[in-house]
Amino acid sequence: MSVSVVIRTQNLTKTYEAAFRGQDVLALKDLNLTIQSGEIFGYLGPNGSGKTTTIKLLLGLIFPTSGSMEILGNKDIGSAEVRRQIGYLPEGAYYPDFLKGEEVLKFYGQLYGLRGADLRKRIDETLEVVGMTRARKRLVRGYSKGMRQRIGLAQALLSDPQILILDEPTTGLDPIARKEIRDILANLRDQGKTLLISSHELLEVELISDRVGILFEGVLQTLGTIDELLVNREVVVHVTGATPAVLEQFRGKGLEVEDVVGNRAALRVPDTMSVYQALDACQSTGVTLQAIAPRRETLEELFVRVVGGAKNAQRGS
Fold first, then answer.
1. CATH code of the domain in which 210 resides
2. Which domain holds residue 80?
3. Among 35, 93, 215, 286, which residue carries the largest CB count within 10 Å?
4. What pTM was estimated for this model as a whole?
5. Which residues of 199-286 form beta strands (DSSP E)?
6. Cα pseudo-dihedral 87, 92, 98, 99, rounded to 10
7. What's the CA dihedral at 303, 305, 309, 315 to 10 degrees?
């Protein structure tokens, strides 16, 4: 049966009791979160914000102090039925380097209860999905970081789960490996999987996520789609024929000069100037106008804005 909301938390709270009569630590406070079927959800926050605590709660590794959770409509998240529907890739996953890639998957497949032809089929299928079929008989010690991440993804996919929880899936990878992992994750979403990604690689999250949530000190600060959250902050005018003297004229008129390549330049229009004034300034210098485009803030800028605002509010309280 299809379930539109695959993860739901209501007032989910976790407090860690301090040792030796110290101060208890409130790691997560009143988290109300829904994650929809077939979406990639980016779960963001500074270190110590509560992301790992949330993941541990969803995996049933720790228990909430208060509040509730549902996974695929089931409140018994520790049941074998629910756990089979969750694939997990931890940050910095380690696999014995004396094993071959397919031997790693055989071990984990047996933990899932797979045997015989079913196990061999799932190993073949997951290796194909992550692009590791040709490296299946190589020792893990000979794998690159990107290949280890691929085997980790294959491990998370062995039970054919509906939900994937991925902790830092692209950290430490080179740009090509990041792109390859990103494509794999997008394909999994297209197949109907739901992905919860916790990461500090904000550009990667921005490129792939449908929605994001930002935590700070255990409190969910903002939640929404990328388009809803990232605002158009300014207008950029792209011109050609900009000599050094012309660029100085632009600066004198209040335009900020960015990305100069040869005689091409991007001019950021400040809030104090209208687009029409900027165009008049360009026309008066004789440059050729190429494009006018709004520049949307990045997810990193949103992250800094939201977390910075939460810090300021905390100091003022």
1. 3.40.50.300
2. 5-229
3. 215
4. 0.83
5. 211-216, 219-225, 232-240, 256-261, 264-269
6. 10
7. 80
